[in-house]
Amino acid sequence: MTKRHLMKRLFLIVLAMGIFVPACVIGLELVREPGSDQVSTLAADSNGQIARGAYLARAGNCMACHTTRGGQEYAGGRAISTPFGNIYSSNITPDKKTGIGTWTSNDFWRAIHNGKSKDGSFLYPAFPYTSYTKVTRADSDAIFAYLRTLTPVAQENRQHELQFPFSQRILLAFWRMLYFSPGAYQEQGNQSPEWNRGAYLVQGLGHCSACHTSRNFLGGSADTAALTGGMIPTLNWYASSLALDAGAARRDWQTKDLADLLKTGVSSKGAVFGPMAEVISGSLQHLSASDINAMAIYLKSIPHVDTIAQSELGEVSKQEEAVLKQGAKLYEKYCAECHKSDGKGAPPGYPPLVGTRSLAARSPINPIRIVLNGGYPPTTKGNPRPYGMPPFAVELNDSEVAAVVSYIRTSWGNKGNMVSPIDVGRFRGAPIE
Fold first, then answer.
1. Domain boundary among 155, 179, 203
2. Residue 80 belongs to what H/E stretch?
3. How far apart are CA 17 and CA 12, in angstroms?
4. pLDDT tens digits, residue range 326-362?
5. Which residues make up the binding site for heme c 3 (predicted)?
6. Which residues make up each annotated binding site for heme c?
7. Which residues constitute the domain of residue 215?
8. Residues at the annotated binding site?
């Protein structure tokens, strides 16, 4: 065999493998449907199942994504911005032409558990089926029973606006092979019923990892990074780690502190702003006290992971010293009246700045945005008149914002890094929503 013939044969083998392997991946993902043998628990006429489904839909915060501002509930059309383009939520009312009126409970279970639509096509993971796969068949059927009681809304689904090649849905087969492991939650026998309930809600319907886990350039995440915090793509907020670090400022968080924060948006240890405020307003405040307590028990048990910037200023330069002195003066002028000179605040109205994880995280975006734009914790039944923070974007320039944020991030035992005016300038124009 000549060298030319050998090279030609090798080329054909490589070409064949280049076609065969992707075809196998796509084929396997198309037919892979674990849990498809589970029998529907849908009742013919069960008010109890419908009521439970309504509660679970709240727990999953379904309305938040499937309702556009000013639109009809669950009719879809809300743009979900991603690094790859806009994905528009679908109509999940029981309209037979534009919604899920022709779906069966098996079709709905397929979407929840395996991330596939009624026709078998792959769903984009902006729909968090990577978390919802942990939902039980009984809970899936209950949610479906509730959705069937909604008023049908005739509203066509919008086409996604995704860049090539992400617009090619079939290529999700490769993403799924890397980042999706379908399977309902399995209770841990060595843990309490409350812990297991909390884990089920946090890992499943609550889909907390969708925001609180860092993602790579393909939008995938590793189990080892689960709930350790990360930037929320395109929203310009940093979702703090839910794993409490070993620092003394965080060890004193009690289960009640976490439960209060999840239920009302404020606690003696802090308050929530930004996207999390919407989650609490639309979802968590409506959950039962026992479920909120279970979530707090589980979250408090997550192994300590240090995601704080851990800055050791040591001997500061004259320039840094000048910045921190300026920041201290600005803090006393604009912040100390509410947050106090020692940073301990007057909770729950005025949250403490001591030991607040998001203030000292690797990314300074949260404190920068809050100083610039102000904000409110969510309005909840447990905190119907939240105290708000005024915006300082007009009053303070980039250097002044950098100085006061640097002071807060490095004072009272906080171990954040210094912030530069360039950092502030990058986020000054970030969309508020």
1. 179
2. strand 79-82
3. 9
4. 999 999 999 999 999 999 999 888 999 988 878 888 8
5. 335, 338-339
6. 62, 65-66, 208, 211-212, 335, 338-339
7. 193-301
8. 62, 65-66, 208, 211-212, 335, 338-339
